[in-house]
Amino acid sequence: AQKVTQAQTEISVVEKEDVTLDCVYETRDTTYYLFWYKQPPSGELVFLIRRNSFDEQNEISGRYSWNFQKSTSSFNFTITASQVVDSAVYFCALSVVNAGNNRKLIWGLGTSLAVNP
Amino acid sequence: DAGITQSPRHKVTETGTPVTLRCHQTENHRYMYWYRQDPGHGLRLIHYSYGVKDTDKGEVSDGYSVSRSKTEDFLLTLESATSSQTSVYFCAISDKGTTGGELFFGEGSRLTVL
Fold first, then answer.
1. Angle, CA A67 vertex, CA A61 and CA A70 arms, to 5°
2. How close is the nearest chain A Cα to the Cα of B28, in Å?
3. To the nearest 5 percent, what fractions of chain A are helix, strand and coil?
């Protein structure tokens, strides 16, 4: 099976807390891509990051960091010192090759993060 | 921000009526996608296009058709809308669809079928 699991449906934190959003994936592909997207209350979906399966380096962008571990098939997302503006639904997605040799995205169901003042 | 506009942004219609949603891009990206988003189901791919006049079905294509006569426009048509098609529809574009490129999304079109 090829799938993405975001086990945390909802998370609520107080501003300035650190929070980690979990993403676990399954795939038989050796070449694949992982993504995180953010959907704030306004509704649009915003691309955050893409990693390919050959690059396990962790990435940091300001208060955001991503931990990619192939050994545990996880691509977790950490927000340091969370802010109210981080309140959103966050989606993890996996790009794999389908039967027609085209790539397709498999989406997790999202984690709703509420950052309270 | 990627230049993607969806129209209409909101629409209420009645069961059995035809509906067309339009996605227009100014980025000249090759790949275009239509998704629907529903609670408990996340994002599901309806149809996608990998070039002018080249389209293919996604995982929930029944009841929908698409057309792409120009690079910049991708139309999604519900020939006879049903209440189960009440949803938020997102258009997305990518310049590297087959190599795992990121998607850029429009603002969404909220469709209510009564």
1. 145
2. 18
3. 5, 55, 40
Q: CA torsion A43→B3→B87→B97, rounded to 10°?
A: -110
pLDDT in tens, A11-44: 999 999 999 999 999 998 888 999 999 999 999 9
Tell me what pLDDT residue B98 has: 61
- What number is the average pLDDT over the span A46-51? 92
B102 touches chain A (CB under 8 A): yes
Token pair of B56 as six digits = 């293919």
Give residues with Cβ within 8 angstroms of A32, minimum separation 6: A52, A53, A94, A95, A96, B100
Name the residue facing A44 among B97, B98, B107 (closest C-beta): B107
Q: Where are the alpha helices (DSSP H) in chain A?
A: none
From B5's Cα to the closest Cα of chain A, the distance in A is 11
CB atoms within 10 A of CB B99: 12
